[in-house]
């Protein structure tokens, strides 16, 4: 409170809004187990070649630094091989089975949501491919973001007016508007303006292939604000 008796009102407020997702990210793994490392790697490579050929038929392109917001992209971002082990009940030790497993991790990003049905069919038809995650995302510049941020500011103004009215005062002017946590040291999360991600439910034509059905995303804007109120004259106790 200033020397003139004008209180400073500090509030936190948030607003939420559901919007359609801008794109989907599909994460999967191609895995084959055979009798040798070379055979396993060759088998996985063959499956990846067939999959990427089918994706190209849908218009997919390899993901690279210039991909930007292309309608459909893919990347094989991680390869590995491992010897298969089993627990020998007689020796009580882990022993080699003689089999080798090769894997390649795959990510498909789809912005053309009209291509989801075709993509689901391609993924379901791939032998050795398991899809373990589908997330729906909203771009940082989605047109709904300014709306939800403005709604958070309106909510903060309303809360400040409630506090001022309880003091028999009115809000005079705004002093600060900031993302949560920027007006003081507290435990507020750094990313208080965010799009929530959801996984798709199971479905598709084979086990392990999620149904690619868009899920609405909840945008959340959380802000902190400080307002100066008119002077207050508190009654005597």
Which key features would you list for this structure?
237 residues, alpha+beta, Translation Initiation Factor IF3, Alpha-Beta Plaits, 2 domains, four-stranded antiparallel sheet, 3 helices, 11 strands, 22% helix
What does this entry look like structurally?
There is one protein chain. The chain is an alpha+beta fold and 237 residues long. It has two domains: 1-22 and 139-237, Translation Initiation Factor IF3, CATH 3.30.110; 23-137, Alpha-Beta Plaits, CATH 3.30.70. It is built from three helices and eleven strands. It has helices at residues 37-57, 116-124, 144-166; strands at 8-19, 23-34, 61-62, 72-88, 93-110, 129-137, 171-179, 194-195, 202-203, 209-210, 217-229. It has a five-stranded mixed sheet with strand order 3-4-5-2-6, covered by helices on one side. Strands 1, 7, 8 and 11 form a four-stranded antiparallel sheet that branches. Strand 9 (202-203) and strand 10 (209-210) form a beta hairpin. The longest helix has 23 residues, at 144-166. It is elongated and about 90 Å long.
Describe what is shown at a glance.
By secondary structure, this protein is α+β, with helices and mostly antiparallel strands. The chain contains three helices and eleven strands.
Shape verdict = elongated
Please give the order of strands in the largest beta sheet: 3-4-5-2-6
Rounded to the nearest angstrom, the radius of gyration is 27 Å
* CATH homology superfamily name of the largest domain: Protein of unknown function (DUF541), domain 1
Mean pLDDT: 85
The percentage helix is 10-25%
Number of helices: 3
The total count of strands amounts to 11
> Which architecture of the largest domain would the CATH scheme give at its second level?
2-Layer Sandwich
Q: What does the main sheet amount to? A: 5 strands, mixed
Order of helices and strands: EEHEEEHEHEEEEE
Question: Span from first to last CA?
Answer: 19 Å
Indicate how many domains the architecture comprises. Answer: 2
Kindly report the CATH topology of the largest domain.
Answer: Translation Initiation Factor IF3
Strand content: 35-45%
Unreliable spans: 188-207
Instruction: Tell me the structural class.
Output: alpha+beta
Provide the CATH top-level class of the largest domain: Alpha Beta
